[in-house]
Amino acid sequence: MTARFAHAACEPYVAEQPRWASASFRPHRDGLQQCPVSEEVYGAVIGAWLSARAGEAPAVASLSLGRAVDFPWLSQAIADAALASPDWAERARRARPGHRAALAAPILRSTALRERLALPFSGSAYEVRDVAYEKVLFGKASEHATHVPAGQGDVLVPFDAMLWLRLVPRGSRAGAANTDVHGAPSLAPRDVQR
Q1: Could you write out the three-class secondary structure of the chain?
Q2: Residue 117 reports pLDDT greater than 80
């Protein structure tokens, strides 16, 4: 599947691995070429993939997105949500390097993030149950966030992780979303009001 892309040479698509009931979002057919994926392209590629799947196609239980930094809008939203989280700067400062990923958990597992990533699945045979992640990377807010309060440029924020969407058939009991008990800030698109 391809869609119009800001980088003319980039050809994003979804590759299925039926043996493992999974699929992977690929920003380009050449894995060595850097191709940032806009939110619009993400939605178009997922939508085209879902529309093209035949009714008898094997079920898919997960969709690997790869690295969040390949989706600049997503990477920035994660960093912004961390900065907006209550007492983030202090908690990030006190966290030991091996324990920082736990700080990012409420952001990466938030209902707001799941809902934003699930938008292209609306009306399809699948819904996004939750977001799984690993290998969370942190960097300075001044380099990764879009809304940096004065004096917080050096605060460490999550900006990258390996991400997977866990999929379930629409309407199944397994599709009940996890609730966000951590009160993570909204990751809604800028033009959507909550």
Answers
A1: CCCCCCCCCCCCEEEEEHHHCEEEEECCCCCCCCCCCCHHHHHHHHHHHHHHCCCCCCCCCEEEEEEHHHCHHHHHHHHHHHHHCCCHHHHHHHCCHHHHHHHHHHHHCCHHHHHHHHHHHCCCCEEEEEEEEEEEEEEEHHHHCCCCCCCCCCCEEEEEEEEEEEEEECCCHHHCCCCCCCCCCCCCCCCCCC
A2: yes
